[in-house]
Amino acid sequence: MDTEPSQRSEDTAESPAITDLAWGSVRLASGRRFKDAKLYPGGAREWDWRETGTRHSPGIQPADVEELVDEGARIVVLSLGQHERLEVMPETVRFLEEKGVEVHVEETRRAVELYNRLRRERPVGALVHSTC
């Protein structure tokens, strides 16, 4: 598993920039690449759906976003895939809202643009699905 340790000191670590998105590839400013990415203040790693049993339907579940909140994300951007085939469970949005986390759900290209804009303003996390 390709991981980058969190180097977060209270609200100071910036989330990594995404420099390129292609079918099956998310590239960060550091040069690291992932098929699907889990991004958070101070770090990034491969988003391995097998860890939580995620499927396109019912989609992103609370267990997928817990790490983002634990790493200090105050905003979370969830991508639906480039053809918007990945769903988001209502429980996931509710979980984030109950934690006081602002949630955005977008098609992957729009999600990446939003994430890159927000990452300079506040602690942000994202789940980026690079394919369908």
General description of the model:
The protein is an alpha/beta fold and 132 residues long. Helix content is 22%, strand content 27%. It is built from 3 helices and 8 strands. It has helices at 62-70, 90-98, 108-118; strands spanning 18-22, 25-28, 33-34, 36-40, 43-46, 75-79, 102-106, 124-129. Strands 5-4-8-6-7 form a 5-stranded mixed beta sheet, sandwiched between helices. It has a 3-stranded antiparallel beta sheet with strand order 1-2-3, covered by helices on one side. The longest helix is centred in the last third of the chain and has 11 residues, at 108-118. It is globular. It starts with 17 loop residues before the first strand and ends with a strand. The model is unreliable at 1-10 (pLDDT under 50).
Indicate the topology.
Layout: E1 18-22, E2 25-28, E3 33-34, E4 36-40, E5 43-46, H1 62-70, E6 75-79, H2 90-98, E7 102-106, H3 108-118, E8 124-129
Parallel strand pairs: 6-7, 6-8
Antiparallel strand pairs: 1-2, 2-3, 4-5, 4-8
Helix pairs in contact: 1-2
